[in-house]
Amino acid sequence: MFSIQPKHLVVLAAALAAALPAPALADDPAGGVVIDVKGAKRTLYPIAVPAAPDGDAASRELAQVAAFDLSVAGVFKVLDPAGFLADLRAEGLSIDPQKWKDVGAFGVVKYRATAGEVEFRLYEISKGTTAVLTKTYPRKGEVRPLAHRFCNEIVKYYTGEAGFFGSKIAFTAKGKTSSAIYAMDFDGKNAYAVSNNSSQNILPAWSPSGAQLAYTSFMRNNPDLYVAGAGGGRPTKLSSQRGMNTGAAWSPDGSKLALTLSKDGNPEIYVISAADGSVVRRLTNDKAIDTSPAWSPDGSQIAFVSDRNGGPQIFVVPAAGGAARQVSFNGTYNTTPTWSPKPGAHVLAYTTRDGGTYDIVTLDLDSKAMTRITQNEGSNEEPAFSPNGRAIAFARAGQGIFIANADGTGKAVKVWSGSATGVDWGPAPAP
After folding, report:
1. In the prediction, which pLDDT does 13 show?
2. Partners of residue 349 on adjacent β-strands
3. pTM of the model
4. How far apart are the C-alpha atoms of 6 and 174, rounded to whole Å?
5. What is the mean pLDDT of the chain?
6. What is the DSSP string of 393-427?
7. Confidence band, pLDDT 50/70/90 cuts, at residue 36
């Protein structure tokens, strides 16, 4: 059996009771630039997000949100406003292409907010003064969601991929005597409690629709599995087998969940019905500890953690049942696998301890290439991919939640401060 580390103690106590290449720039037949997200050239697209001159608080927020979104998209370099040469007041919603070319911008984002609407424009310097993308949204309530929506449009325009701005992250916020399930916007804003009891609540998992969260709670003294609406409220108990009901992962179609049950005396991976919690099948049968299941995007495989070959390592088993195979071989302690949702990719991210601390790595199951996401930056654990697979969120012990590029480039950005674990990134927002 593997030794129990303090950060994993609550889960194992219950048992006893990526790499994606950086973008390349290519010529567009229409005269502009497109971003080849499969290219090997490590070049980021320089884009400017100038603040509206004499803008109100909403206008300033629009600029801040757009600049942040594009900076963490994994394909853009957001230019420093201190170097801008353009007369923003004279330009208004238009641009002087030469002024932006002189500061190295390939693209420029402009916007105008009124009491009733927000208009956005995207310019490519190579295409002159005609905006290549224009969107106008009715203004009702916060302007943040509108900035997220337009930045998603920018990502899709340049890459063909859907953006992840406006999605949500769930996590366990750890307190002195209890822990609670929280959800927040991916950038750390608008955090709220999903669980509503003073017990230990751990390991949240988003449903594929984003409408529900499954999590384990000790509110009735046993680690039972509950499902609650994504907005919180009274949860429904789904699985209350004797012992462990932990680490749930939804099937891609939302009809089933994989989880660890210890009802027969040993922690094993099972599949249960999302409708009534009944057992559909048992996937593992080994004297070792099997835990932390994660469903592949196509529903054909489940990754999990087992110490059957010594220290904890990542294994993959067919979701319909069959023999499990070990896929992680670096170091002696690998846990918390999660799959990249990138179409055609067979990539896992997981927590590894192949040195003195815990770090996040990705592993391409086809090429066997491993990419480090963190190193020499504290103790990092429990990764979760963004809905498009281009970013990874994770918890850093004693500091909070960070997001980083899934290809290992750039620097991780903190989005939430506090003591957190059990990170899970929800599905893409509605267009």
Report:
1. 39
2. 338, 362
3. 0.91
4. 13
5. 91
6. EEEETTTEEEEEETTS-S--EEEEES-EEEEEE-P
7. low
Tell me what pLDDT residue 33 has. 55
- Tell me the β-bridge partners of 326: 315
Q: Does the structure show a pLDDT above 50 at 7?
A: no
Which residues on neighbouring strands pair with residue 370, listed in sequence order?
363
Nearest CA to 107 out of 47, 63, 31, 153 is that of 47
Write down the H helix ranges in 56-209.
57-71, 88-91, 97-102, 144-159
Bridge partners of 192, per DSSP, are: 183
Burial of 374 (0-12, 13-18, 19+ CB in 10 A): buried
Closest alpha carbon to 197 in 179, 182, 173: 179
Categorize the per-residue pLDDT at 14 as very low, low, confident or very high, splitting at 50, 70 and 90.
very low
**Cross-strand bridge partners of residue 138:** 117
Torsion sign (Cα): 147, 149, 150, 156: positive
List the one residue out of 238, 243, 298, 244 whose CA is nearest residue 272: 238
Closest Cα to residue 291, out of 96, 14, 102?
Answer: 14
In whole angstroms, what is the distance from residue 428 CA to residue 42 CA?
A: 26
Separation CA 126–CA 134 (nearest Å): 17
Which residues make beta-bridge pairs with 172? 181, 421
Characterize 69-102 residue by residue with b for buried, 16 or more Cβ atoms within 10 angstroms of its Cβ, and e for exposed: bbbbbbbbbbbeeeebebebeebeeebebebbee
pLDDT for res 11: 42
Cα first-last separation, the chain: 47
Percentage of the chain exceeding pLDDT 90: 85
Q: Write the DSSP assignment of 209-227 as a string of letters.
A: TSSEEEEEE-TTSS-EEEE
Q: Check whether 40 has a pLDDT greater than 50.
A: no
Q: Determine what percent of the chain falls in helix, strand and coil, rounding each to the nearest 5.
A: 15, 40, 50
Rounded-to-integer distance, Cα 304 and Cα 325, Å: 10
Distance CA 296, CA 291 (A): 16
pLDDT in tens, 173-193: 998 889 999 999 999 999 999
